């Protein structure tokens, strides 16, 4: 039976819709973190080890997809991931290098010459000493967060509601865009359900491609651990975009659902097991990061979890 003769069942429609939503989530995944880094003019919040391991996972994913001769959309998306990773990594390296140079120049400028008058030195001490600078930044942060005002906690209600609304609308927009994209693809004949016997007749995946798939899954599972450790060590999620991890959760969830809605037969399941492990397994770690946002993240972002 050809693909054009396969009836559109509910499970196949759900498989196509969730797969399309996953595609939309992956396309926009890194944008929130890129914007957050740009707004902060810093990349201190995100772990470069996290990004590096994730990049290795995307490289092995691309190699496995090419080796297994997967559909062109999967290969194109894998290539897009690699380029997007490089953009985010380059931005983080740039901000880290630039801010490190500025910090070094500031420290050098804070060193006082021996002939400087004591009266002028007193003012410099207030500006240059690490302790006073830390207290100043802490005080400004407390003032910004409303901790030094009696009505501070109530002042967070509006930013928290705004953050919650922005994230909710963003997720809904991604879901609607993915569903609309699938509907257009179905109406124009670009997407058609694939019969299960065609999946079975496609042959077993090459061993090398399967190995690369499992390496990619291990990288995806291990990538978030440095970020979780960094958040725990610093007791902060400042500089991280909550929407970035929400889109990751949405993309992984809908990707796994798209596979399972299509079929749960043993042969098909085992063939896609590496990708299922890489997508569904990382959801546990995403939930751990959401918990960190909740306990010591920014108040406006924590309330939106």
UniProtKB/TrEMBL annotation:
Locations listed in the record: Membrane
Compositionally biased intervals (Basic residues): 132-144
Highest taxon in the source lineage: Eukaryota
Pfam families on file: PQ-loop (PF04193)
Basic and acidic residues bias locations: 145-162
Membrane-spanning segments: 13-35, 47-68, 74-97, 169-191, 211-229, 241-261, 273-293
Protein's UniProt name: PQ loop repeat-domain-containing protein
